[in-house]
User: Fold this.
Amino acid sequence: MGVVLNLENGKREAASIGQLIELTSGDMGRVNELILSKAGSDVQMIPEVANHLISSGGKRLRPMVTLAAAQMFGYSGDGHVKLATSVEFMHTATLLHDDVVDESGMRRGKKTARMIWGNQASVLVGDFLLGQAFRMMVDVGSLEALDILSTAATVIAEGEVMQLAAAKNLETTEDEHFAVIKAKTAALFSAAAEVGPVIAGATRNDRAALRSYGMNLGLAFQLIDDALDYGGSSKDLGKNVGDDFREGKVTLPVILSYRRGTPAERNFWKKAIEENVTDDASLEKAVGLMKRHGAIADTIGRAGHFGGIARDALAPLESTPQKQALLEVIDFCISRVA
Amino acid sequence: MGVVLNLENGKREAASIGQLIELTSGDMGRVNELILSKAGSDVQMIPEVANHLISSGGKRLRPMVTLAAAQMFGYSGDGHVKLATSVEFMHTATLLHDDVVDESGMRRGKKTARMIWGNQASVLVGDFLLGQAFRMMVDVGSLEALDILSTAATVIAEGEVMQLAAAKNLETTEDEHFAVIKAKTAALFSAAAEVGPVIAGATRNDRAALRSYGMNLGLAFQLIDDALDYGGSSKDLGKNVGDDFREGKVTLPVILSYRRGTPAERNFWKKAIEENVTDDASLEKAVGLMKRHGAIADTIGRAGHFGGIARDALAPLESTPQKQALLEVIDFCISRVA
Assistant:
């Protein structure tokens, strides 16, 4: 791939989330059990559809963040396991609905649920998982955590509608685009991180630190995801390079290339995004234009900017293995393009 | 229409919900304000889509039930207004998703949101309203009410999937069908009724009474709705006679006609439901077969059965204007076919 990231510490190999996985492996065992049990139903189609996506090898980054953030402040109950599972269900529900909205055919290297069971099942099983997510939160009994996660649910939907309303609009500004990804992606990372200190009874400052960490991590994560779509290998990504292009998505690499392009190049982008001229030759040309204008590199640069803010959000906190693990997640997200 | 209902008291004119409307009119003013404000968003498409459905003249029966049920036990805060609004938002979200699942063109006499703004907007605005519903519940702060309503959200989705899995299956038994409508329709009526006594701090028995009232009212309501689709006028119903038939829905009038039919008649039903032969002549024949086998009358009879259980659920409660109003709702639901 053309893009190699220089990490701040000079390492060029990809960072890992090994420390996060290790610290949360016991709790994640319980999360995975809870996922299976709460995706269950006497209505056979529900576990079928839910498990198709759940078992498709997502990294479960969000629930691990919740668990580590709770551990970090000495939480000792089992509420963090339920909240982590809720967060993953909210994420899964969003993916099911997203695939319907985007009319996607592939997700994580597998056919999407809507291609196998239809749009109807994807909408309804998403609703079911969202309902189960709320039941688990209620079961934990923290009104503050409920407030944070239910607000996130609203904001995510708002972000998705914002994205829909701006669909195929090449004049979208960078700021407008950041508002969309902040709502549709970063809000859930932020909530996932904040509910940890909340149920642990941590201070207002600690809550704010984790909230800010999650928000900026989420922004970095989404930007890298958008960069990868024009430069990752489909093995790593679970989707094919150019999926966003073929779906006519106006992501940051496209926004930057369009804004920086010549009139002729802008016409190319209009044909591609507005008129769906997205054959392989067009994709190749698109990637070429992105490179010429530094659009992918600068998308990664913007991700680095937010990653830095996430890092500083945690700076005042005591050094713990959990803090170290959460810092590694930032590097991991950004180094996915390396 | 051919079906005239004999109410228990011998009256043949339609019952009304006048008493319920009167008792809750002050609170409903606040519910309606809250609906408008909580359907608002800086993302312009959200209030557009939401208000299209919200302003289309639903009766708002569910929130009125919540308000009356809270008043009945002397509730004096403002939580019942928020919970009633949550209930209406859950209902609205379900309708938005239902129209996508059923590919419906009309709802309450207007084009469905999906015909104007697309399936995507309907899915996402539904998600937004569901998120807002949960935020309002959280704001009320009753974990018991949250438990009841979040469980209902899950059960509703489960019921919808059950219905999807049984779609076009003419061998569906009456019991299987009751399980579907109990989940997809009656669960929300039940929750709407139960949260009233819950926030009023009523006894366990009072809660159980209202829960049972709501569940059986919901069953009666849905059965009458299904009967009306083969015998109501489109003015009353906000949808056209035969909509269910044209969508190939296996409702109780169809189930009864199919089970009671001759082999030739069953072939007719298979053509209609499984192969979509649903022209006007087929609809006329379908209604004729239903009359021959008493399928509509017996659907109404089953509704009367559940209505009777709903009535007896409230029997031990002290006589109050609220109780009287809730009893009238039963008659109203059933007399819609008169």
